[in-house]
Amino acid sequence: MMFSEKLINWYLQNKRDLPWRETRDPYRIWLSEIILQQTRVNQGMPYYERFTERFPTIGDLAKAEESEVMKLWQGLGYYSRARNLHATAKTVTQTHKEIFPQSYDEIIKLKGIGQYTAAAIASFAFEEKVGVVDGNVFRVLSRYFGIYDDISVPATRKIFQELANDLVQNVSPSLFNQAIMDFGALQCVPKNPDCSICNLSDSCHAFRTGTVNELPVKTKKIKVTDRFFNYLVLEDLNGNTIVEQRIGKGIWQNLYQFPLIETEEYLSMDEIILLVSQKFPSLFSEITDVTKGEIVHKLSHQRLYIKFWKVKLNTVFERGITQEQLKEYAFPIVIWNFITSHYEK
């Protein structure tokens, strides 16, 4: 039996019951794929359900305010996904009259959609014979076929893409692509897979050669930058606070935060008092470290060391924000967690 057929047989017996597999609607398939980028299925499922309930069609999403989209996305991270999602919904609505493009070559032109996502949409919704290539697929194909090319090198993707395309030519592309992704997520996992129960092990290169834990080959390491964020939770005489919107490029673009002082290392109480007194001369009355233990927030290329400082000021903010109003803004999850724990006592 051929590899593709074996994989599909495994899938039909072991597939996960996921709502976006019950539809051919390209909007819902696209939405699920964007949510699941850098996100586990169990974490992404509630977001998918909230988005489809609030925005049943791509036209509904296009009409929404960006602030509402970002608020619904809060907690998923990689917020550029949400901004691109909203922008593409507008493009499809305005340029294509709410009809999602139906071919890989057209889909990949849309903002925020790369090779993998375009292949997923084209094959799942329209049965186009194009293979998907993501981390799971790299792992399964490299192990089964014995491919030792370094997957951190861009040119290697072409090797895997051509192989994936070949494998879907004589089977249903939607079925095969979902099968190989589930197989990588459930059976051919990154570390210590149970090859004794795998129906592909008898013809798997890695299993026969004892190289399961050596494949796929990936040599490039991500350089991680350390950053130190000091958030000033300002409080005026009425108990109100203020927030600011992050603008420009970088993490958390367009999300909200408390006023920020970024430093090169942790600050002592004396150091933060000096900085705050310089920032709010004659207004500053009291400062307290309200951080619950050490907060280290890890991103793909950055490690953030975060402190929250409650600063009381002898003034009244002209546009102060109440505790209830804070909940209406879209914050990075680390700040949102602080807000919910600090203000809901």
UniProtKB/TrEMBL annotation:
Keyword set, alphabetical order: 4Fe-4S, DNA damage, DNA repair, Glycosidase, Hydrolase, Iron, Iron-sulfur, Metal-binding
Cofactor binding comment, as recorded: Binds 1 [4Fe-4S] cluster.
Cofactor(s) annotated in UniProt: [4Fe-4S] cluster
Pfam family, one: HHH
Transmembrane regions: none
EC id: 3.2.2.31
Domain HhH-GPD: 35-186
InterPro entries per record: A/G_AdeGlyc_MutY (IPR005760), DNA_glycosylase (IPR011257), HhH-GPD_domain (IPR003265), HhH_base_excis_C (IPR023170), HhH_motif (IPR000445), MIG/MutY (IPR044298), MutY_C (IPR029119), NUDIX_hydrolase-like_dom_sf (IPR015797)
Catalytic activity: Hydrolyzes free adenine bases from 7,8-dihydro-8-oxoguanine:adenine mismatched double-stranded DNA, leaving an apurinic site
Free-text function comment from the UniProt entry: Adenine glycosylase active on G-A mispairs. MutY also corrects error-prone DNA synthesis past GO lesions which are due to the oxidatively damaged form of guanine: 7,8-dihydro-8-oxoguanine (8-oxo-dGTP).
Family per similarity comment: Belongs to the Nth/MutY family.
Protein name as it appears in the record: Adenine DNA glycosylase
Organism expressing this protein natively: Paenimyroides ceti
Biological classification of the source: Bacteria, Pseudomonadati, Bacteroidota, Flavobacteriia, Flavobacteriales
